[in-house]
């Protein structure tokens, strides 16, 4: 079932890349495996999946430790508590959702010397929703500047979760704003290459507007308890 789901989602991504004049392979699939057992993740790995996202720091570390596969990229995509920064910096390869300078400082401070720099995506709250984390668009460059002079971390791009919309045009409008911010960030930081936006319900709009990574969970692993 998981392998079939992955095959279908990959086919959908390739179809949308073609439909919206994107280069084949531009969009990376991040499998969101929160609340799913190690056995399910192993099935996805066997089906060729290499990028996984976890929302809960401790749960994710248990899986990372159990699987211990250096070819897998582990992304932390949940809210970041200050008391979890050491755990996250020690075990994950990517952190998506950084919204505060304090968290950047602590992640850099706790990244072990023997590991490569921790990949960072800054979270933007594009719709100014009270229920969501993220910096405002106006704060993005100031926050990005906090990565300067910190060799333990490397700024890779933007992550966002726009407000839910059922209309494709409305979805695209929010993603287009994020794409503009992304290009501005790239102009200042040439290493920036990741625009993480889009989930099952708005994947087409995200890919149409330039997403380089989409985050898919339930459509791969099934519903969560």
CATH class division: Alpha Beta
* Structural class estimated from helices and strands: alpha/beta
> What does the overall shape look like?
globular
Rg, rounded, reads: 17 Å
* CATH fold-level assignment: TIM Barrel
Low-confidence stretches: none
Mean pLDDT: 96
Pattern of helices and strands = HEHEHEHEHEHEHEHEH
Query: Which range does the strand content fall in?
Result: 15-25%
* Integer tally of domains: 1
- The CA-CA distance between the termini, in Å, is 18 Å
Q: Which strands sit side by side, in order, in the main sheet?
A: 7-6-5-4-3-2-1-8
Total DSSP E strands: 8
| Oligomeric category | single chain
CATH architecture: Alpha-Beta Barrel
Mind telling me the CATH superfamily name?
A: Alanine racemase
Put simply, the count of helices is 9
| Helical amount | 40-55%
What's the main sheet like?
8 strands, parallel
